[in-house]
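Residues and backbone
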Amino acid sequence: MTLTFEPLADRPGLEVIDQIERQRYRIHTPTPIALREGATDVFQYPVGDAVQIRTRAIELPTVVMVYVRDDDGAIAAEVAQFESETLPSDDYVLDPLTQIKTYMRVEDTAIEVTVDSERTRIEFDSPTDLLIGARSQHDRPAATVTTTEQPADVMAAVETFGSALKAHDPERSYPTLRGHPPAIEMGDSLDIPMDIDSPDTGVTLELPPDLASIFVAAPLSYYLGASLAPASEPRLTTDTGFTYSLDTARGFESEVGRTLKRLFFLDCVTRTEGFHQIDLHERAAIEPYVDLDFESLYQRPLAEQVATYLQVPYDVIEDHIPKWRLTTHIDPVPANAEQLPYVVDDLAIVRTHQQQRLNQASVPAEAEAEFTRDDVITRAASSDTGTATAETDYVEPQAEDSLEQAWIGDSIPIGASKLTKAAFEHRLDRDTNAEDITIRVVQNDARMDEERQLVDEVYGTRDDLPFDVTVHDNLTTAELRTVLTTDAEFFHYIGHTEHDGFVCSDGKLDVTTVDSVGIDTFLLNACNSYNQGLALVEKGAIAGIVTLNEVLNDGAVRIGEAVARLLNCGFPLRAALTIARGESILGGQYIVVGDGGITVAQADGGIPNLLEIETVEHGYSVEMNTYSTDNKGLGAIMHPHFNDCTEYYLVPGPIDAVTVSSDELLEFLNMQQVPIKTDGDLYWSSSIDLDAIH
């Protein structure tokens, strides 16, 4: 995020560039200005650091909602796109909904806030002392807990997760107030650092002392800051005497998931009585059907809120709960406990159902008759050097009611991402910077030029983001090694792979022979690329898209183009593949390895979305499906930029369809590049013909 400050007559302009780096928020200014005493204590929300400047105006080169609060914390104005508000001289705190959580405080000043189609501008009636505070997203573990393989010790380790919460009231349903849980390492003894301060929220989860139960309950324990205790029957208890069984006819795992969703959702509704007193669509939808005094409930202790929430019938609110971002299926063995903090940080639903193992990933018979990316000539040419035996232990996790599915275990998942500890650790080492987004495209087969031409038209088309795109053709093993070991945000490979290497003009390059790689994310659009993709993650990458078997060339082109466009629009890797799979009959052969929540670029409007459009009698019916990112996680809110929309909606999930005119729809589509589904086909806002929509 870049803030441009209007220059005063007697001094140059100031520019503040914000960035998060290893839990530390840094504000850089060309001219040092003394920090006001006690500056971090004057905002309603916690901030990690603050700086004071003097300026006449601030301009953000993006469109963001701005809340203006008075000195008591009450909302004095809220300014959305195409709106402007002028407020008289007073003390204010401005809360722009930017990627970095930032607050601005002014005293005895009149202000004007304007949000147009491209920018957000805040002006003052005279040169003003402005206090800017910011809070780290706390997006990495602050400490490491060591545990043995014994369930009692693992339970004690999981109990520390709640120490990362920045609030213990309904406000913690905002993603920026949920910090990253401590990391877990397996060792010879239990060791919990002294500086970990687990909260006492008055809620206890009593669980059978086995790893499966502990893993499933970990996200619920974290969100509630709950204590954990061994028991023969699973249940939730509070210090007020309330008891809620987690062993129902639906089964323990389903009940824990429903409990987390219910508590989280009702917190999202109750928090509308707190700092952000907005018109929330979901509150209006359920309020006539629940006997809850949200104003009173907001002030009560967490344990009392939990007891009240759990008396609300689930089926009354079920249809209004946000679409959950992720369900993680985990093999409940001790080593996998080390990945729990990263799963919990996503507030994922955890399942431990044992799945049927498969001998191979199925491939439709028609693949044999079509040109694939593992063609006969290539395989024959490489057969002299031998081919590594492919892993054949597959697992197909049961699909759950989430936008995305993931798997933690030794087997190869079908239809789900493969999570690894190495991927999460590499992400923590990733530097956040304001430099260009570097993309490397490698085409190692001239017959696949169609995909190369398509992605050439996609990458780097965002005027608001700096891209550095380089295309390489027909690389040797040495040249490909150089590309892989050079720093880049994204690597798009078009060509052939074997289980034991990338096919190059002079042989094969096996990533396992490379010491480390510099690429963060990747798409290996080639047959049988799973092994090499997994090796890239082990050698330093964060995540990538790979194939489990052979893929048809035509389908690979369509998926490659769709993934490129979706990543360019700001979709996380895993969500991009979930959407793109529908572009080919062999879409199920593609999975994500590593941390699929990573993004290559930020979304234009902050939250990536997919539109579903159809014609109706008086125009077009538009339904928006929103997707979470790490910066806009579960519990974030968004306001659709349609003229008659006055409500806010929870993210992620579908937003109620609205009917708009042709002119209004075109105006909306011109604001940003977004994917569109109509009649089951995928289109793009920059090129769709509205007359073709039925």
Remarks:
- Confidence is low (pLDDT under 50) at residues 1-38, 361-371, 376-391.
